[in-house]
Amino acid sequence: MGERIDNGQPRRLRGFTTRAVHAGERPERPEFTPTVTPIYPSVSYLADDPETQDAVFGGEQAGYVYTRHGNPTTRALEIAVAALEETEEAVAFGSGMAALLAAILNEVQSGDRVVASRDLYGATQALLGNVFGTLGVRTTFVDILDLEAVERVLAEVKPRVLLFETISNPLAHVADVPALVEIARGRRARTIVDNTFATPLLVNPARFGVDTVVHSTTKYLGGHGDATGGVVATTRERALEITELTKLTGAVLGPFEAWLTLRGVKTLSLRMQRQCENAAALAGWLSRHPRVERVYYPGLAQTEIPAIFNGNLRGGIVAFDIAGAGREEVFRFLRALRICLPVTTLGDVYTMVLSPAMSTHRTLTEQERAAAGIGEGLVRLSAGIEDVDDLIEDLERALADV
Predict the structure, then answer these.
(1) Integer Cα distance of 138 and 157 in angstroms
(2) Please, which of 121, 139, 264, 300 could form a disulfide with 222 given CB 3.0 to 4.6 Å?
(3) Cα 54 to Cα 58, 63, 245, distances in angstroms
(4) How confident is the model at residue 2 (pLDDT cuts 50, 70, 90)?
(5) How far is it, in rounded angstroms, from Cα 222 to Cα 357?
(6) Half-sphere exposure of residue 279, counting CA atoms within 13 Å on the CB side?
(7) What is the CATH number of the domain that holds 177?
(8) What domain range includes position 293?
(9) Confidence band (pLDDT; 50, 70, 90) for 204?
(10) Residues 159-174: pLDDT tens digits?
(11) Of residues 40, 113, 118, 121, which has the active-site annotation?
């Protein structure tokens, strides 16, 4: 196939349109290495010969044939995340929910059971009930901080999977990862952990024996609110299984999103340092405010913190209950903000605030939200990198309007 090209120009092509289509494409491979990973938007890839293409398709030889099967830019991101999470492999997806779906689907089949933390992202709970429930996979929710209850439920249910978050969404509860892994192993259950809130900078669940780590790369890893994505970090064997599953479901991450996320990863430690410092300062200030009933931040609401952190940082998420507030009071608070942005995401350079009852946990019933400790007056704040005094002034003004 390479014979069709001579110094980047196709041979024996005379027609104008043919030259317009092919001229300049598929030049000889360069003898240099770019400093930054290029964006490879190509859907398909030429091989030197059909035999090579056949070997790549069959998994007998490394290479690329079709972007649903793999893309060089996306692969660079997978290598980076695996290195940060200290796992053998990683597989990228078009969203965090797609990554979580694949991670669970790879472990269960109809008739299996899942035990999950009661304090989970609302969409995760909906996924377990509305999708896996219809597939015959039943989920039992448990207080993940109550290790005795976890032990008891696993003994009774005998699940295939124990699912929880390192730092929970939205109440910032910190899971005792080593203890939970030990309990799960004793009952032959796989562990799947959503590490989005902590990021690999703060916690590496695989160090404690977690089987599969999931991230919404839309959040801290990308960090700039311009690329939706997800990733699963796990063993090489499990990653191969998930990759085959991804080829069929097609929930792949595009090369442009992969490149933006890879760029974001490079500044993760710098951004996260500032975000955690801001969050800690805001948590302390909010805990002293007369209009705030309770603050949820590691070291405040949950005083006994499991020893899972890599350093002194405790995350960039703060949640708090506005005293006596209902839906209307929270909406008034959100409308009064000028610097903090009332949007339904987190992990950006901007400080972002939302009402979980309205957004992240909207799919749950009022009773289910109450069981998870999520009231109408709860607010979740994702600290950005702004000057903390400006953030305090903004929150002070908004709380005064409630």
Answers:
(1) 10
(2) 264
(3) 6, 11, 20
(4) very low
(5) 26
(6) 37
(7) 3.40.640.10
(8) 268-400
(9) very high
(10) 999 999 999 999 999 9
(11) 121
Half-sphere exposure of 298 (CA within 13 A, CB side): 27
Which of 26, 45, 66, 68 does the annotation list as catalytic? Answer: 68
Amino acid letter for position 362: R
- To the query of whether residue 335 is one of the catalytic residues in this protein, the response is no
Minimal CA–CA distance to 208: which of 239, 175, 173? Answer: 175
Q: Is the pLDDT of residue 141 over 80?
A: yes
Highest mean pLDDT among 19-23, 45-49, 202-206: 202-206
The residue written with tokens 């430690």 in the block is 269
Instruction: Based on the residue annotation, tell me whether 219 is a catalytic residue of this protein.
Output: yes
Q: Taking a C-beta distance cutoff of 8 angstroms, is the pair 213, 85 a contact?
A: yes
Which CATH number characterizes residue 313's domain? 3.90.1150.10
- String of DSSP letters for 9-34: EETT--SHHHHHHHTTSS-PPPSS--
Whether 41 is in a domain gets the answer no
Six-digit token string for 368: 């289910």
Domain count, the chain: 3
Q: Which of the residues 40, 160, 176, 194 is marked catalytic? A: 194
| E strand or H helix at 77 | helix 72-85
Write down the catalytic residue from 118, 160, 190, 219.
Answer: 219
